[in-house]
Amino acid sequence: MPHSDLPISLLRRMYRTMVLIRRFEEAVADRVTAGEIKTPCHLYIGQEAVATGVCSALDREDYVWGGHRSHGHYIAKGGDIRALMAEIFCRATGCSEGRGGSMHICAPEVGILGTVPLVAATIPLAAGAALASKLRNDRRVSVSFFGDGATEEGHFHETLNIAGLYRLPVLFVCENNFYSSHLHLSERRVCDNIDSAGQLHGVESVRVDGNDVLAVRDAATRAVDRARNGMGPTLIECRTFRWRGHVGPSWDMDVGIKRKDDLKQWIERDPIRLLREVLLAQGESPEEVDAVETECGDLIEDAVGFAKNSPEPDPRQLLQHVF
Ligand SMILES: Cc1ncc(C[n+]2csc(CCOP(=O)(O)OP(=O)(O)O)c2C)c(N)n1
Ligand SMILES: [Mg+2]
User: Which of 234, 259, 265, 310 has the smallest set of CB atoms within 10 Å of its CB?
Assistant: First the structure.
């Protein structure tokens, strides 16, 4: 990764966010293995630079939408990690009052309007929020994070078309980790060309190295600028990799099937290590950089304690909010 002209305080902040996500997910993985967490967890380990780079370009009021693999989006946008951990433990103090579990999380106070595990579901929702912002002229930008698998759903294309037509202030962030469950991209598509989908619909499109947080931030900053200035949507394809299985803590298995032998080379391009090298090149000492580990470790330990000591939801409220 090249030298960066960004202020050192911002680089440090992004590093902290990525470490917080990594350690949070590792703590979740351990608790799943221990049988303490029952909700299915799709871990974000390996993809931290995407959420961090995009959210670093957003304001608190901007909207973020996610899917089944969204702990990282929630943390990067500034959601409360006690409430996230409690939700993953399905406790009443969770961000969705223990009704949602890992895949239905929200933090409207920081713009996270929701995550929906139906693949591609929040692509049109983000466009709807962007349409509302355009009508209200509130200058908010809306972001949908989704996977490469989601681009195979019809409403990905339908939404790009309408967003392009109405020049909606929305970012479509595709996290291309090359797998949809256990199926590699090459088994599902004739061409590796997700980024070209935008051009069909008048949507600016760009492909970036999703493990390079500075490249992701740069693309997101340009896209946010375009959106706020009435120039419409951008599709950002971020090429990255998840280190764990599709769901759960196992290292390289997807529903019992071993992936192709590509994990090793992606671990060598660990997004956190890449940014650490930039910080060291800018004159930070290893001790300064590594100090965040203790701080993040303490925060996560506190969140786990909070979650475990929280009550379970009251069964009498089971049908509340059910239509
Ligand atoms: C509409 C729909 N079809 C199928 C599923 C089952 N499913 C859950 S996650 C997933 C894979 C999604 O892959 P991708 O979009 O690339 O995201 P990733 O898991 O790689 O982050 C599938 C097929 C679903 N949840 N919703
Ligand atoms: Mg995928």
Answer: 265
Tens place of pLDDT per residue across the chain (323 aa): 557 889 999 999 999 999 999 999 999 999 999 999 999 999 999 999 999 999 999 999 999 999 999 999 999 999 999 999 999 999 999 999 999 999 999 999 999 999 999 999 999 999 999 999 999 999 999 999 999 999 999 999 999 999 999 999 999 999 999 999 989 999 999 999 999 999 999 999 999 999 999 999 999 999 999 999 999 999 999 999 999 999 999 886 665 666 657 888 999 999 999 999 999 999 999 999 999 999 999 999 999 999 999 999 999 988 888 88
Lining ligand 1 with CB less than 6 A are: 42, 68-69, 117-119, 147-150, 177, 179-181, 246
Tell me which ligand sits closest to the C-alpha of residue 117: 1
CATH class of 8-310: alpha beta
User: Which sequence spans correspond to the domains of the chain?
Assistant: 8-310
Q: What does the alpha-carbon distance between residue 116 and residue 156 come to, in Å, rounded to a whole number?
A: 15
Give the integer Cα–Cα distance in Å for 97 and 91: 6
Cα–Cα dist 279/92, whole Å: 40
The model's pTM: 0.97
